[in-house]
Write a structure and sequence with these properties.
The chain is an alpha/beta fold. The protein is about 40% helix and about 25% strand. The protein contains ten helices and ten strands. A six-stranded mixed beta sheet has the order 6-7-8-3-9-10, with helices on both faces. Strands 2-1-4-5 form a four-stranded antiparallel beta sheet. Strand 9 and strand 10 form a beta hairpin. Bound molecules: adenosine-5'-diphosphate (ADP) and magnesium ion. The site of adenosine-5'-diphosphate (ADP) has 11 residues, from strand 2 and helix 2. It is a peripheral membrane protein. Belongs to the ABC transporter superfamily. It is an enzyme of class 7 (translocase).
Length: about 260
């Protein structure tokens, strides 16, 4: 009996050692609203976690706390074993390890596509201009918008802009990329070109947290689905299990509305 438990503990320790992002007892309020309630979540290196749940359940806030775009009231967040401080140079360093892709692209409108992908490399990573340009072009090629490098964001389609935003995130060599509803602002015919890039990243082993309503993506790319409601993680499961046999009433209700 004890042999079994020793093996299990050892495995648990090995898994914990490979956790890249760990949220422990994270609480966050907006005034009276308890938007994150004792959230515990560990994301392993190379894992793709899809976060789903009703509007207002705290999904965006969860993402934003992971790179301290939002502070937390209590609890800890560690990135690759280092606890996120609330401010300062160490925060900037850790934050650079966490890429973020937003629903609204958030590209710099007055910079070309190439410059958008060069800037962070030069400012944060102190890469020289020629090296940054070369890497930017290679990343734009990789996400299929290499020919758009000299255009401005407004001259691109939404799907192309979002792929530029992904290239910009990749340019920082992040340890993890957070995607907050990356296809929600796109016309339907452009959703797949963005999901395909994300699928490819997932297949290459990128650690990803993806808030999305694209259940096809969740089924095919996620290692784990995290279901949130009212600021809590209500349920976590492998996609197969979650979609075929959700345990909580909240998840059943949510799935019946979207599937
Ligand atoms: P989701 O992404 O799941 O739709 P959010 O994390 O955006 O949810 O929001 C969770 C709740 O927190 C919502 O009720 C929202 O109105 C509220 N909220 C989000 N950001 C702020 C803010 N900066 N100030 C006050 N309330 C906020
Ligand atoms: Mg949101």
């Amino acid at each position: 009996m004890s042999g079994v438990s020793v093996t299990k503990d050892a495995k648990g320790a090995a898994e914990a050692a490979d956790d890249l992002v760990v949220l422990s007892n994270v609480n966050k309020h907006f005034g009276a609203l308890h938007v994150l309630q004792d959230v515990n979540l560990s994301i392993a290196r190379g894992e793709v976690v899809v976060v789903i749940g009703p509007s207002g359940s705290g999904k965006s806030t969860l993402c934003r706390t992971i790179n301290r775009l939002e502070t937390v009231d209590s609890g800890t967040i560690t990135i690759d074993g280092k606890e996120l401080p609330s401010e300062g140079r160490e925060l900037a360093r850790l934050r650079a390890d966490v890429g973020m892709v937003f629903q609204s692209f958030n590209l710099f409108a007055h910079k070309t596509v190439l410059q958008n992908v060069m800037l962070g490399q030069m400012k944060v990573r102190k890469t020289d201009q020629a090296t940054a340009a070369k890497k930017a072009q290679a990343l734009l090629d990789r996400v299929g918008v290499g020919t758009q490098a000299d255009k401005y964001p407004a001259q691109l389609s939404g799907g192309q802009q979002q792929r530029v935003a992904i290239a910009r995130a990749l340019a920082m060599d992040p340890k993890v990329i957070l995607f907050d509803e990356p296809t929600s602002a796109l016309d339907p015919e452009m959703i797949n070109e963005v999901l395909e890039v994300m699928q490819q990243l997932a297949a290459e082993g990128m650690t990803m947290v993806v808030v999305t309503h694209e259940m096809g993506f969740a089924r095919s790319a996620a290692n784990r689905v995290v279901f949130m409601a009212d600021g809590k993680i209500v349920e976590e499961a492998q996609p197969e299990q979650f979609f075929s046999n959700p345990r909580s009433d909240r998840a059943k209700d949510f799935l019946s509305k979207i599937l």
